[in-house]
User: What shape does this take?
Amino acid sequence: MFNIIVKDTYDEVSLEAFKIMHEVMQKDSPVLGLATGSSPVGLYKYMIRDHKDNGTSYKNVVTFNLDEYIGIPKSHEQSYYTFMHDNLFNEIDVPEDNIHIPLGEGDDVEKNCLDYEEELQKYEIDLQVLGIGSDGHIAFNEPGTPFDSLTHIMELEEQTRKDNARFFDDDINQVPTHAITMGLASIMRAKKIIIIATGANKADAVYSMLKEDKNVACPASILQDHPDVTVLLDQEAASKL
Ligand code: GLP
Assistant: This one.
């Protein structure tokens, strides 16, 4: 079930996301599902400010990230490992041992998928943060991904690589071709989900997610079956609704 909130600015959208995060953070040991990309950065800024100003502690928090590129090392400046440390983890007090990020390097990434899913299954995510790709992907589950998928390897669509080229000197050739990602069924296990989408280039994907029949052509449409999803939009992303 969708609760749709439309705000005027990205900052207001981020504040709404933070309010939901803040509520979940009142639990004793929250388990957070975290996302990369531009969409959650404003939320992460609010979390950092709240940690520094109000002392909200992440010592008992466990985190699981959605995805990671394959073919660049963890230490690469555009790895999702680096992104999460730069944009959140280095600024709060979450213990490094409590952080889980899929591993896109090593001899056997298939095994990394199984290991990640096994660890994930030991927990129940209290709040999963999502963005949405312009082709309707969530995490790195591209169109056509089965709804019952668990953590797996995904070949990225050209559109996704184009969208993400801005992080790689605007050069699509530098964007990895594959990624390791939580599956759609892995994501659906979360108790509560927020999905953040801003800007006109998300309007079609948002429309398909909310208004078209559930279909693997729009991976985000699986969220129609989830009991507790808050969709946080700006006017542009909501413009086709
Ligand atoms: C990326 C990530 C997704 C993200 C999406 C949108 O490729 N794998 O997790 O939600 O694309 O990114 P952005 O928020 O930068 O628009």
Remarks:
- The chain has one domain: 2-234.
- Residues 2-234 form a domain with the Rossmann fold fold (CATH 3.40.50.1360).
